[in-house]
Amino acid sequence: xxxxxxxxxREACGVFGVFAPxxxxxxxxxxxxxxxxxxxxxxxGIATSDGQVAYLHKGMGLVAQVFDEGILRQLxxxxxxxxxxxxxxxxxxxxxxQPFLIETLYGPLGIAHxxxxxxxxxxxxxxxxxxxxxxxxxxxxxxxxILASPPEAWGVPxxxxxxxxxxxxERIRAxxxxxxxxxxxxxxxxEAIYAVRDPYGFRPLCLGAxxxxxxxxxxxxxxxxxxxxxxxxxxxxxxxxxxxxGLAVFEGPTPPSPAFCVFEYVYFMRPDSVRxxxxxxxxxxxxxxxxxxxxxxEADLVVGVPDSATPHAIGYSLESGIxxxxxxxxxxxxxxxxxxxxxxxxxxxxxxxxxxxxxxxxGRRVVLVDDSIVRGHTTRQLAQLLREGGAxxxxxxxxxxxxxxxxxxxxxxxxxxxxxxxxRSEEAIRRFLGADSLAYLSLQGMLTAIREALxxxxxxxCTACFSGHYPLPLPEGHSGSQEIKxxxxxxxxxxxxx
Length: 498
Hints:
The strands form 6 sheets. Strands 3-2-4-1-10-9-11 form a 7-stranded antiparallel β-sheet. Strands 5-6-7-8-12-13 form a 6-stranded antiparallel β-sheet, with helices on one face. By secondary structure, the protein is of the alpha+beta class.
């Protein structure tokens, strides 16, 4: 099976954890993972605990393909964590599917992880030197093994032990010191769920309340689906515990300046999710409005790339006064698992996924609004599709700045060599796209629009893919997440069809 090679940054993973006394936590987790499916479609998994025994099921594919009624019945207990995966470190196969679950001195330990350990190579080497065997190429397994070890094994001084001390909190704090980014975690033990964001707060994680119990999720849309009330987002470096004693909050190391991934607003989060007091949909409309102010165009119609750029395009239309239309129809049944038998089919992937509405486009000048450009191949094909549909001019407008640098914080965004804006001028990109004009939203304009759209803004964001200013030191010698994605794959599992 292959994937349709759309010119997009690839999703971060989705994580969920719940303590629901008297309820089947696995069923709540299944529903929540369906809401988080947009964050990863390679694999899905759920781990549960009934207070005595931990249970685990995971598999390749979409959530509804991995789980059925019989499997959910076997995942017993009121504690559960779940995961939907898009791989950033570790290739796409079952060894790297999450959650991971092992037995430790303090009982079962499971984790589900969204993000990417920036210094995974160093941590992996230290584990192997200590004689710890690893069964996958995922940096999530490194986190699991760090949590399974006492802090002093990593040179982190142990905390004073009081009568109410929690060994898992102590180990999570040690992890925060060893690995400052970039991740959000949900952790399952025999009797509790723990959740934590890294000290920079790169990846999202929010907290909700059930009628009885609590839940944490990558996005608020998952909480709403299970009937949980959104309470707030976890602060960078904050640790929470959910168990029969209720909700407990613990401080981690003193956090540096926040560096939440700005691309969550531009593309990744579901439009109906809420963050920093504002709806993601409204934030994207604000980006489109700002884009129209900065980069007007003489045109008859505004067309957004469905579905991710639709809010941006509507914002552009409202600000410019140019009518918004659905000029491109998306075939939602062509996805990541479509078989691509040859190079020609791969090059035609956009034609398989989108169709132009000729009756709408014929004889019109079109503004094509998209959220981002990575390699440029998809945008080029979309511009050509609009011309095939009868558009007399295509003005490309991008609701984010040029992506000139790769991401090391959990977004699969290509290498320097593959990023079209890293090695081409804006005019050269326009010629490559075959557009009549091209304009990007400015970095300052993007930040201004986001801050003005959000009632409660953290104020500081990670813009490294646009600016090249990384919030924390990077390992030497890497040129992008694509390069390190399968760097740790040394064991290949071969499955034969029966």
